[in-house]
Design a protein that fits this description.
seven-stranded mixed β-sheet; alpha/beta; single chain; about 350 residues; about 45% helix; 11 helices; five-stranded parallel β-sheet
Length: about 350
Amino acid sequence: MKKKLLSLLLCIAVTAAMVGCGNTSQEAEAETASEASAAEDGEIPPAEEESTGREEESYTIATVVKDMSDPWCLRHQVGVDEYAQETGHNAYVKGPSKTDSAEQIQVLENLVEQDIDALCVVPIDPEACKPVLSRAREKGIIVITHEAEGFDACDYDLEAFNNQEYGEAMMDELAKSMGEEGSYVTMVAFLSSTSHNQWMDAAVAHQKEAYPNMQLIPEERIECEDNMDMAYNKVKEIIKKYPDIKGFIGASSYDPPGAAKAIDELGMTGSMFAVGTGVPSVSGPYLESGSNPCVLCWDPALSGKAMCELAVMILNGEADQIQTGLDLGIDGYNNVNVNGTDISGSAVLIINKENMADYQF
C-alpha cells in the first residue's frame, strides 16, 4: 500500500508541475494531500501493480488418444473438453477409430502439419511414434506423452502414478483374492506397450518377493490388443490348458473384464479371479459377480487435464517451475514427482463392488 501511495503522490506532483498554472504551490499541496487521503479511503483506484511483461495467451492443444470408440479414451476427452471450457484454450481430442498404431500415427502426421502449439499423446506404440513426434518438436510443438515412461521424443511424459507401485498394487489385490497361492498369467494390450509391460514386470517381481506360494505360468505374456473379445477367448484357451489356474492380472482395461466373462461362463466364479486395470462402465457386471474382485485405474479425464496444463506451463515459459512438489491444480497431481523428463502423480483408484457407483466412467 505504501508503494502504491508513493507512486500516486509522485504522479500527482509531476502532473501539477507540468500544468504549472491555475494553482499556487499551496493549492497544489492541498490538492495532493486531498487526493492522497482519498486514495487511502478507497475513493481513487489504487495504482496498478507493475506488469510482469507476459500476457496470457490462448493456445491450441491437440490430444491424441488410442481409440475414439473406447470408453476410457472418451473419458479422457471429457477432461480435455472441460479444460478448454475452464481455461479458454483451444484444446481438443483426436484419435484412430480403433486401437491401431498405424492409424494413430496418421492422425499425428496430420496434426503436425497444422497450426498447433502442443501435442499431448497416449501412444499405442511409443517407438513407432518417435519419428513423427520428433518432427513435431523440431517444428516447435510442445510434446507431452502419457503411458510412455522413459520415452525420449517428448518434452515430458506424465504418469498418473509411479509405474512400479501401480504394478505392485495390482499384485497385492490379486494375491488377496487368490489367498496368496496358486498360478496366474499376465496380460497386456500390446507387447510394445511401455507402461503395460512395466506394470506387469513390477507385479511379477513383487509376487516373487512377497508371495512365494504363487507361481507365474511360464507362458509368453498374453497380448489382447485392447480387445475384450480377444481377452475372453485367450483366457478360455488358458483355462482349458491350465484348469487349475487361479488368477489373471491384466494391464489393459479390457483384460480383467474379458477374463472375468470367461470365468463366469465356465462356472469358475469364486475359484478364479481377474484383477488389473479397469473401469466400472465395462467391469461393472464382473465386479458384481466377484470374478473381478476389484479393478485399478486412474481417472483419464484428470490425466487429460493435467497433460494440457503441463503443456501450457511450458508454452508460458514456466518450465523452470516443473520440479518435484509442483502442484498442477488437479486432483492426483497436486504434488508430482519429477525425474528428468518423467513426471508422476499419485492418482491410483481401487474400485470394487462397494464403491463403483462413485465413479461414473
